[in-house]
Amino acid sequence: MNTNATTSTFDPASFGKVGVLFGGRSAERDVSIMSGTGVLNALKSRGVDAHPFDPGTQSLAELAQQGFDRVFIALHGRYGEDGSLQGALEQLGIPYTGSGVMASAVGMDKITTKKIWKMDEIPTPDYMTIDPSTDLDEVLVALGLPMIVKPPLEGSTIGISKVSKADELKAAVDVALGFDPVVLAEEFVTGREFTVAVLGSGKTARALPIVEIVAPEGNYDYQNKYFTDDTQYHCPAPLDAALTEEIQRHAVNAYRALGCEGWGRIDVLVRQEDMRPFLLEVNTSPGMTSHSLVPMAARAVGISYEDLCLEILASARLKMAKNMADVKGEG
Hints:
The chain is an alpha+beta fold. It is built from 12 helices and 13 strands. The chain has 3 domains: about 10-95, 3-Layer(aba) Sandwich (Rossmann fold), CATH 3.40.50; about 105-125 and about 190-315, D-amino Acid Aminotransferase, Chain A, domain 1 (2-Layer Sandwich); about 125-185, Dna Ligase, domain 1 (2-Layer Sandwich), CATH 3.30.1490. It has helices at about 30-45, 60-65, 85-90, 100-110, 110-120, 135-145, 170-175, 220-225, 240-255, 295-300, 305-315, 320-325; strands at about 15-20, 50-55, 70-75, 125-130, 145-150, 160-165, 185, 190-200, 205, 210-215, 230-235, 265-270, 275-285. Helix 1 packs across helix 11 (about 305-315).
């Protein structure tokens, strides 16, 4: 997989008035504020007429009144990364960054994502779905221990538990059920943790260098993701060329299988015993904080944080415009 990337020179005036959407109402609000503030400052530093907008405190009516020519979505989680806001932007006719309504909704739902990947023979850990009526003994038999239990519609490791003993499962499920009505229980893969950033859409989608994540005691939790310097990152990841190409190929195929656009990030585990990669989930609006992994991968191929923001902003568009043109007889 060719990870060489180049950036073009963009005319800041060509973007018009830009809204940077961050904050929101999800459990990841604080992280989104950090991401959006970084993006806003980067765009302003390059002369873009960029303005903050917080859908968590401002209404869609206010968004429509702003007169934005395009928006950069720096929201994470519900109401920003799940297709709901994307649908509103389609209705308002405001071009936006990232994936469209369907890919955003599917990518946000880890269970649906895994179903699609399984059908496309993209390697992902075995799993079961759990609701309050599920026999937990059947889950233990099917997946064994340890296992990972998580809410399928949250991110940033929110609500996730590692279950090592049978008597820990119910408590872990109860925690996850506090976020979603169903829970994802997943086979635990022992090995090394990686992530792959992908830029572009369709046939133009390309993987950036792989990042290896080495967290304290293997615990890449919310605190170690965003607020400490104890986690180590290696980019490009120290992998042989063949495995690097395999992981990047799987990541791009997984991204395309969901219909993702613009940019995204695929999380991967490589099993220790046989170095086989397993894809975990996709992030269709990845973090852009000082600790975030997409900017790190971009720097490895000479793309600065500011240029990355410009490239993503340049990809903003309406995904349903062609369909609307067809309806109006213009296509």
